[in-house]
Amino acid sequence: MKLRAPSGDFTLRKNTKPLILLTGGVGITPAISMLNTEAGSGRDIRFIHAAINSDVHAFKHHVDQLASTHDHIKPLYVYSQPEQHCQPHATGFIDTSLIAEQLPADRDVEFYLLGPTGFMKAALAIATSLGVPASQIHYEFFGPAESLTA
Fold first, then answer.
1. Vertex 52, ends 48 and 55: CA angle to 5°?
2. Could you tell me the CA-to-CA distances from 55 to 44, 51, 87, 91 in Å, in that order?
């Protein structure tokens, strides 16, 4: 088996702009590293995660723990098929109005989106329609790069 060196340029931009981490399913994994890195910074962080329900919501306890000790971290959980014991902030799927409520009026944020391709296409369309500058929207694929705008 041949291995290649790590590649890609999906890195956290270190500045004071609000940080939007919008994840779906397993896309939460790289966002957790970003959240951990910025937790002590005081930077405004919106951690938005879409999952089927709390039974398959990875890292929920970890994010809740960070949010309970850092006022600048605001989680928002969206479950498409919540069970009776689930307590999401919203149900269904991410949409423009839901994400708009998480953004400052000037849309001057660093916006990271991660998840399955369909989720990322929707998230990119939402971020773009809301006026987040293209240079401040970041994403990466788990595999060969694809186009989200085709």
1. 100
2. 28, 9, 11, 15
